[in-house]
Design a protein that fits this description.
single chain; 437 residues; alpha/beta; Rossmann fold; Transcription Regulator spoIIAA; six-stranded parallel beta sheet; five-stranded mixed β-barrel; 19 strands; 33% helix; binds S-adenosyl-L-homocysteine; binds FE3-S4 cluster; metal ion binding; 4Fe-4S
Length: 437
């Protein structure tokens, strides 16, 4: 019997892809098989997130639980951003942990499993040309990294300290990986990076003149690729060339993540985001005029140090003007290694909580009107997942989740669906008969 691997993944899409890389390496080179049963695993991994404080606290209770449930002799490894940030402190606090592997050291997984108490957390390590073995959790869509690290240094964000400086993955490797994935059935390619539209800023081997728009064109020329998504772009780098390619390239899905963070120019300056309220609104309005059906999602932080009622009102103003289809909102969480943790005028928790509820309630009420407008529309849906109750779910090009009554024969297909029931998180519809590819 082969060795068994149990892996839990927290955090963002980049962590999901890192976990796929870890699984691929362990399957291919160490003959591990995945298991959902913690008590049967020979190796238990947790791929952590450190962007906010809560998940970091949860880590120690989680690995404590693993330690209780694991079978004798099983190893526990801590990977990801909290591994990069805490390093050997993790082993000091939880001595039953066998190794710590940082978010930028994923390719060393096959080494650390053979060492006792290994700590590999070098954030200058360059994995941008490492050829990982292949594993994908979904046969229908493929996450592909196009860069590692982030150069932005937003003053609230720990990521530059856990994932290091930004290095782009050479375009030929990205294209090769996209082609292979699409030929294997993943007709949707999801390009990943902390700051995707800064692509091409730095490669590890030599200078090249290629930007994100050029890369999008290259990936879209692959015949088998039907849809391209990406996350996260940065509002600062949303120049006209990029927005026009987004609008005019039929393979690029019409759904854009525009992380606002704050609507106040003063707060944006303190966050070092590099744009103003006016720039953000100008880009969002340009996007809406170029692509009337576009779905815009965003990230918002409330209660950043120094955020006044007026600043918060600016955030609400942007929300009301842009009418985001989706908002991920967070209370500011002071993080180690970031400048903002030492800023004066930290906002009291009750005020931040009140602002967060206000924002979330407002958005929920806006969503009712937004989703009501979808009634009766016909969308091409790419079906990816079976749901309880005899439903199958997929996404429209502009990122609505749509479920219909149906079974596995819809999976992996593009099918026209008429929307019959709106909802805040997903829509319901009926399959129309003229089925596509
Ligand atoms: N590169 C990504 C951000 C990654 S972190 C981007 O620009 O979109 C994901 C989100 O977590 C951020 O957009 C931000 O809204 C939130 N976040 C990051 N640090 C935070 C902190 N200290 N407190 C609260 N939210 C934070
Ligand atoms: Fe973080 Fe800002 Fe980069 S949010 S990941 S430092 S773009």
């Amino acid at each position: 019997m082969g060795k068994k691997l149990y892996i839990e993944t927290l955090g963002c899409a980049m962590n999901v892809r890192d976990s796929e890389h870890i699984i691929a390496e362990l399957k291919e080179k160490e003959q591990f098989e995945l298991t959902d049963d913690l008590s049967k695993a020979d190796l238990i991994l947790i791929n952590t997130c450190s962007v906010r404080e809560k998940p970091v606290h949860k880590l120690f209770s989680e690995i404590g639980y693993f330690n209780k449930k694991k079978k004798t002799g099983a190893k526990i490894g801590v990977c990801g951003c909290t591994a990069s940030h805490l390093g050997d402190e993790i082993i000091k606090k939880a001595p039953y942990v066998s190794f710590v592997l940082g978010a930028r050291n994923v390719s060393k997984i096959t080494e650390v499993i053979h060492k006792e108490k290994a700590v590999e957390v070098d954030i200058d390590y360059d994995e941008s040309t490492y050829a990982f073995s292949d594993f994908r959790s979904s046969p229908y869509k493929a996450f592909i990294n196009i860069s590692i690290g982030c150069d932005k240094k937003c003053t609230f964000c720990i990521v530059p300290n856990t994932r290091g400086e930004e290095i782009s993955i050479p375009p030929e490797l990205v294209v090769q990986e996209a082609r292979r994935a699409a030929q294997n059935g993943a007709k949707e390619i999801f390009l990943l990076g902390q700051n995707v539209n800064n692509y091409g800023r730095r490669f590890s081997d030599r200078d090249r003149k290629i930007d994100f728009t050029d890369l999008l064109k290259m990936v879209s020329e692959i015949g088998e690729v039907k849809r391209i998504r990406f996350t996260s772009p940065h509002p600062l780098h949303m120049d006209d060339k990029f927005l026009e390619e987004f609008a005019n390239n039929p393979k690029i899905c019409k759904s854009m993540h525009m992380p606002l963070q704050s609507g106040s120019t003063k707060v944006l300056r303190d966050m070092k985001r590099g744009y103003t309220k006016e720039w953000f609104l100008d880009r969002a309005m340009k996007l809406r005029s170029l692509v009337p059906d576009v779905h815009i999602s965003t990230d918002i932080i409330v209660g950043f140090p120094g955020e006044s009622e007026e600043d918060f009102a600016d955030t609400i103003d942007v929300v009301e003007q842009v009418k985001f289809e989706q908002i991920f909102s967070f209370k500011y969480s002071p993080r180690p290694l970031t400048p903002a943790q030492n800023y004066p005028n930290q906002v009291p928790d009750e005020i931040a909580s009140k602002r967060l509820s206000f924002l979330q309630d407002l958005h929920l009420s806006m969503l009712d009107a937004i989703s009501q407008k979808e009634m009766g529309k016909v969308y091409e849906v790419y079906f990816e997942e079976l749901k309880p109750g005899g439903y199958v779910a997929g996404r429209t090009d502009n990122n609505w989740i749509v479920k219909v009554k149906g079974s596995e024969e819809l999976l992996g297909r593009f099918v026209d669906v008429k929307i019959t029931k709106p909802g805040r998180l997903s829509l319901e519809g009926e399959v129309l008969v003229n089925e596509k590819v």
